[in-house]
Amino acid sequence: MGSIQIEFPIRNEENNFLQAMQLPGSAVLCLVLKAVIELDLFEIMAKAGPNAQISASEIVTSLPTSNPEAPLVLDRMLRFLASYSILKCSVVIDEEGNDKRLYSLTPICSNYIRNEDGFAIAPYLLAQFDKVFMQAWYQLKDSVLEGGTPFNREYGMHAFEYPGKDSRFNDVFNKGLQNLTGVTMKIILEVYKGFDGIEEVIDVGGGYGASLAWIVSKYPKIRGINFDLPHVIKDAPAIQGVEHVEGNMFESVPKVKTIFIKLILHDWDDDHCIRLLKNCFEALPNCGKVILVESILPESPQSDCVSNISFYFDIMMMTYNPGGRERTLKQFEALAKSAGFSAIKPIRQAYFYWVIEVYKN
């Protein structure tokens, strides 16, 4: 017998109920996706060839398991992902006359598979849904009622301090950020041409120098300066064309004509951001500029994909970092003006980020 399909008109109240019931599935979706990535299933499916259709039983042969239940468990997980259109699923009849589900990758999956440069957003997803971050969310209600940042309430320290206490999480966290940088910097440098003709650029809060590595790779005449705290710089790898410099951005910034700041302002409250931007203002000549990469929140909530991601980032910053937040363009303008800058201009959008130029004069 074939599957039974029942069609009947759904009233508004029924549709509202169904949508309400669907929401909890979003959390389950992320956790199933996390497990699938940890099992490297998308990579296994990709190795089967373009447009390959593969069963759960076939996938299991590539896993280090002797669990007899693995094919059934995996099939149910993949079927669930297919219901969200993350995978494609087709049903065929096997030799014994039973239904057999075959799965194939969708274009969405390509983002979780390592690209030609070796990067994917999969490690970033693993970091965001790591148990360390997840535990902080259980403090969200009490942070509303009693105050405090959820992450600090859970662990008694800032989210930037914690990785130094947990080597496993530090590795997960840094791999996530490095991969997200590898994916996003490529498109940023494709759409933004503001590095043309620049001789020197400093990346403030540049971590291990991943962003600068992309910049000097495309613009080999640029001298890159990676500026971060001593405990970060000591582990930074050697990068051709990049000098690693220790310092504290809230105390001073080395003098240079062009300053690059990627996803730093959203980690901090307004006072810290203004202090940082004032240090940048003092470091720049009159013709200098700051190149920001940040999300820009719409003034009112929108339901498009970019807005969803930006508001998700905003809640994430609120949960992890004291004072952390995404900002509207007006809020960025207010920060720049408070630091002494004369003008701010969004230049190009790259995925859910904006490249924003901030001019001293």
TrEMBL record:
Belongs to the class I-like SAM-binding methyltransferase superfamily. Cation-independent O-methyltransferase family. COMT subfamily. One of its GO terms (biological process) is flavonoid biosynthetic process. Residues 137-342 form the O-methyltransferase C-terminal domain. It holds the Pfam family Dimerisation. It comes from the Eukaryota. CDD domains: AdoMet_MTases. Keywords: Methyltransferase, S-adenosyl-L-methionine, Transferase. The active site is at H266 (proton acceptor). PANTHER family: O-METHYLTRANSFERASE. This is Methyltransferase. Signal peptide: none annotated. Residues 21-114 form the O-methyltransferase dimerisation domain. GO terms for molecular function: O-methyltransferase activity; protein dimerization activity; S-adenosylmethionine-dependent methyltransferase activity. Gene3D superfamilies: Vaccinia Virus protein VP39, Winged helix-like DNA-binding domain superfamily/Winged helix DNA-binding domain.
